[in-house]
Design goal:
Layout (H helix, E strand, L loop, with lengths): L10 H13 L8 H13 L4 E5 L3 E7 L2 E12 L26 H18 L3 E9 L7 H7 L2 H4 L4 E8 L7 E2 L3 E4 L2 E9 L3 E2 L9 H18 L7 E10 L5 E2 L2 E10 L2 H21 L3 E10 L2 E3 L1 H15 L4 E2 L11 H7 L2 E7 L29 H17 L6
Parallel strand pairs: 3-4, 3-5, 5-16, 6-15
Antiparallel strand pairs: 1-2, 2-4, 6-16, 7-14, 8-12, 8-13, 9-11, 10-12
Helix pairs in contact: 1-3, 3-10, 6-7, 8-10
């Protein structure tokens, strides 16, 4: 394993920063303390810093020894989740109901260490923008930063992201081209019927039965209409209706999520769920309000950038530690918005299997979005070294116009 010195020597400092962020988690667009910490550290290392893009986002500008007009972006996310931490170790969350259960504290610490090294050495041409993004967990912080002009104010030819992944060995990575994470979409369907006594259903129009039929019919879209080689998931996660055993209610509300890896699949699913909901409710003498929300697009790596990142990773940890064919996840990631704007690549760094946690951890598995999760501090120097090597080598390559 080829780690960058002196980053290895900073591991204890990196862990202290990471644990401080973990102990003080902040929700989407509320990352004021975290953003202030990031900005203060960047400025202490002589890095010009810009705050406020995406409300609480931070961008640092690191110029290399020679200026070529070229630049790349490295992105980390900063927000936490609205959940109660089960861990009781010393750096557990001090804020009830808020927890870093996805490792964004570690992502921020790794990019900070890389920024520190790049600012101290500047042994690369061009410019590296370090992007600390808010509101990844369902609130489109990446899109907000883009809308606020992050790519106009800081022009870059490519952008790169990294996320820890429990279940991949510490010291290993996974990367591949094409889809990495699915799109995230939600729907809400309000069915309005006509209430009646449950013993006299003929006097009403039952929205519950309409909801039941929709729940079954929607699955035929996945099994009979979507290309079976184009994975898709439609899950109805809520059906709310009624208040008494002997009353047919006036209304039923259904909610759920749809995950796909292609725009074509989500176009089909949105169109057909709307049609089925409208026509089924009409047949059952009910009216319907159908709302479909496209939250995050699929996260899709560019082939060239994925191949480049794979080579960088293999040179750091060895080819046997870089998984090139791992199946994509049906989870979603708002780095997808950045990849729709710029070429780039999103890689997974192994977080291990949970045995890195000391005393005081919860009894649950060390998985993402789990109350017993904790980031693995052992991989901090590795992730930071990857960022440094990626920046050095990408900016040293001839540009396409050369």
């Amino acid at each position: 394993m080829k780690l960058v010195e002196p980053i290895v020597g900073w591991q204890a400092e990196m862990a202290d920063i990471r644990r401080d962020i973990h102990a003080h988690p902040e929700l989407a667009y509320e990352e004021v303390r975290t953003a202030d910490l990031v900005a203060r550290l960047l400025e202490s290392w002589g890095i010009p810093t810009h705050k406020g893009l995406g409300i609480t986002g931070v961008v640092g500008v690191i110029q290399g020894a020679t200026q070529t007009g070229r630049a790349i972006g490295l992105r980390a996310d900063m927000d936490a989740l609205p959940m109660q931490e089960a861990n009781t170790f010393s750096h557990a969350s001090k804020h009830a109901g808020v927890m870093h259960a996805c490792g964004h504290d570690g992502h921020t610490a790794m990019l900070l260490a890389a920024a520190r090294y790049l600012a101290q050495h500047r042994d690369f041409p061009g410019t590296v923008y370090v992007i600390f993004q808010p509101a990844e967990e369902g609130f489109s912080g990446a899109k907000k930063m883009i809308d606020d002009g992050v790519f106009r104010q800081f022009p870059m030819e490519a952008v790169f992201g990294m996320h820890n992944w429990p279940g991949i060995d510490a010291g290993a990575f996974a990367v591949h081209d094409g889809p990495v994470m699915a799109s995230s979409n939600t729907f809400e369907i309000t069915i309005r019927g006509k209430g009646a006594h449950a013993a006299m259903p003929n006097l009403g129009h039952d929205p519950v039965m309409a909801a039941v039929q929709l729940a079954q019919a929607f699955q035929t879209i996945i099994t009979r209409e979507v290309d079976p080689l184009d994975p898709a998931v439609l899950s109805i996660t809520q059906i709310h209706s009624g208040s008494a055993d002997n009353v047919i209610p006036d209304e039923a509300v259904m909610r759920g999520t749809v995950r796909t890896f292609s725009d074509g699949a989500i176009d089909l699913i949105e169109r057909r769920t709307r049609e089925i909901a409208t026509l089924t409710c009409q047949a059952l003498n009910c009216s319907v309000q159908f709302d479909f929300h496209r939250r995050y697009p699929p996260t899709i790596n560019n082939a060239g950038e994925a191949a480049f990142c794979a080579q960088v990773l293999q040179d750091i940890v060895g080819a046997d530690k870089v998984e090139l064919a791992r199946a994509p996840s049906m989870g979603a990631e708002d780095f997808a918005f950045m990849l729709k704007e710029k070429p780039g690549c999103y890689v997974w760094i192994g977080n291990g299997h949970g045995d890195h946690r000391g005393s005081g951890h919860g009894l649950g598995p060390c998985m993402l979005h789990n109350s017993s999760y904790d980031f693995n501090d052992e991989v901090l120097p590795l992730g930071a070294s990857y960022w440094v090597e990626l920046a050095r080598r990408r900016l040293a390559q001839p540009s396409e116009g050369d």
